[in-house]
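User: Batch of two.

Assistant: Item 1 of 2:
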Amino acid sequence: MNNNGTNPSLDEMDQYVAELQEKAQKLTEDLTEAVGKARSQDGAVIVEVNASGVVQKLELTNRASEHTPTQLASLIMQTLSRAQRAVGEQVAEAIESFGGPGGATGLMQQYLSYQPPSEEDDQPSGESAFDPPEPDPEPEQQTPPAAPPAPKATRRPTRPTDDDEDDDDRPW
């Protein structure tokens, strides 16, 4: 229905469809061009992701060698999360501009629910990204299970011998 309470005319429907097509085209272009970029604070890691959050570029600079493997892995994941959040903001803006009847609020909220947590949620408070992990607790000493008892030795039955029999008949 249009603003005056009557059914929309064919021309109004055509205009509405044309507007939606333009918005859809713009949304497609915005999503295609959306790139999230992030650099670690020390510049050791550079990450770029596409609108889906898929890594398009991962660069480790010479500064990466200053970190232990565990530290570097943590730094890569933090930088990746920041790049994904950056592209998530671009995608959210594109979806919001698409609008439509009733807006795209539900679609946008669903998309945002899949984004990485904010930087405040990346680490528990008081922990540094470069704190070494706590060692695993020592496993309790367990005594190995007792060996099963050895089977009883059974004696092989012997052949009955007959003293009356002459053993000369047997060539073996």
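Item 2 of 2:
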Amino acid sequence: MQRSRGVYAGFPCHTNRLVDRSKIVTGNPTNVPNPPPIPPDRFRSADLLPLGSRIGPRLLLEPLSPEQLQDYLYFALETAGNRQLMTDELILTLSAHAANNLRVLNQMAAELLATAAQENLPRLDEALFFKLFSPPMTKSQHRRRK
């Protein structure tokens, strides 16, 4: 039997036996057909229904509490090997301003880390947080401040 030059052409063959394709599980270990997933409400509108039907499996996540976000930051810092990189006050501030969303927390922390690296800061603190994430002052606020 001649091997095809298709998908497996670049992989070495370690056996001469033929594979029984009926025993290969492809994505559904029980081999029971799944019902179509129910799209979130925003994909049920007439305009977005075609898009919602193309989105595969979904994992709906619940918002995390600020305490869970703090635990995550402590874990991430310890795993990275530098627990002292962020002050406790900064961790509290980040978890309070992350909108209970782990992605937002990670993006804010990444921006803080990048800025601290550019400015060669030894530790990330609340002052850096407010420098980066405070809205710019308007002209009237500048006048009132003086």
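The chain has six helices and no strands.
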